[in-house]
Structures are given as C-alpha cells and as structure tokens.
Design brief:
Layout (H helix, E strand, L loop, with lengths): L14 E7 L6 H9 L5 E7 L17 E7 L3 H10 L12 E6 L8 H13 L3 E4 L5 H18 L8 H8 L14
Parallel strand pairs: 1-2, 1-3, 3-4, 4-5
Helix pairs in contact: 1-4
Length: 184
C-alpha cells in the first residue's frame, strides 16, 4: 500500500486522467460516462471505491491529474470512506489536484451536521467543494462540465494557469463560529 503521488509519472500529450472515488458507486458511473464524452481533450477516467489503489497495476497506471471524492450526504459510510482514503494521497495532491463532490444535499433526511463535517473536511485540506444533482441527466452533465474545467487546469492543459492558482480560487473555507447564523 503506497501513497498515490501526482508527479511520479510523465503526463500524456493532450490528455488528462481523473480518479473518481465513491464508496457506493451510485453517481460514479454516470459521471464517468459524461466525462468521457469530452472531445477536445482525451479524458481517461479511473474508478475506485476507496484508496489505496491495488499494487498490481501500478506500472501501467497513468499519471492521475485529479482525484475527486464523491460523497453522498445521505450515507455516513460515504463520508467515513473519503476520510480514511485521504491518508493514501501524497501531500502534492493537495496543491489543487483534489476536490470533493457532494450529492444528496437536498434530501430532507440528511442531518445538518454531515454537511458541516464535509465542509470542514474540504476546508482542512484546502480543496474545492462542489455540489452536484445526481438524480437528473442535466445535473450529471453540469457536474461533469465543472469537473472538466478543474481537470484541464490540474493536468496543465490551460496555458498560464496552474492547479495551485485554481486551488486558491476554488478552495472551501469555513466561516468562524461567530459568522454562522443560528437557526434555533
């Protein structure tokens, strides 16, 4: 079980590789299909339930440009799986090559503390936090479009822009406790 490192392999010309990590795999396959439809850039999509990745394919595995943790707020296991997988990423990924995508935020059965926990998780790792609608095809398409924008920057395919710069613009920040409105 080794760490996944962002710069251990050379990049491929005019292509980008994204790793979608989701414990329950509800949204993962729909999002992968939508990402592959991109025509300007060759997008390779890798799927995983959790990290670490298996050692047997390490030599043939391409360089992974962006790691996306898909968290379903209706499942506590989804949050715990993402938290436990983070320790298998090299620190270099947290310089604009990791983001969190949340689904199920509109569900009435979601406890409010889960959203706060995910926001704290993203803020503590200085990573982007995206929200996606996983029930409609338009929601999946919109989520894929947002991920493609971040992926192109993370892969170095956008001139004069780096993943670290984009990370500063898109990172999740938690307001201090005095700025959080009380609804009680």
């Amino acid at each position: 079980m080794s760490l996944l490192k962002p710069y251990s392999k050379l990049p491929a010309l005019n292509s980008a590789t994204i790793l979608l990590v989701e414990n329950e795999e509800h949204f993962q396959q729909k999002l992968a299909n939508s990402l592959v439809e991109e025509s300007a850039v060759t997008v390779n999509v890798r799927l995983a339930k959790s990290l670490p990745l298996p050692m047997e394919n390490e030599e043939s595995r391409p360089r992974i440009d962006l790691v996306v943790f898909i968290i379903n707020l209706t499942s506590e296991l989804s949050i715990r799986s993402a938290e436990s997988s983070l320790k298998y990423l090299d620190a270099g990924y947290f310089l604009g090559k990791v983001c969190f995508m949340v689904t199920g935020a509109r569900s009435v059965s979601v406890p409010p503390d889960r959203l706060v926990a995910v926001r704290k998780l993203a803020a503590s790792h200085h990573s982007a936090l995206l929200f996606a609608e996983d029930q409609t095809s338009d929601g999946v398409t919109n989520a894929a479009a947002r991920l493609l924008t971040i992926l192109k920057v993370a892969a170095g395919l956008v001139p004069m822009t780096t993943a670290l710069y984009l990370s500063n613009l898109t990172q999740c920040s938690m307001p201090s406790d005095s700025n959080i409105p009380s609804y009680d």
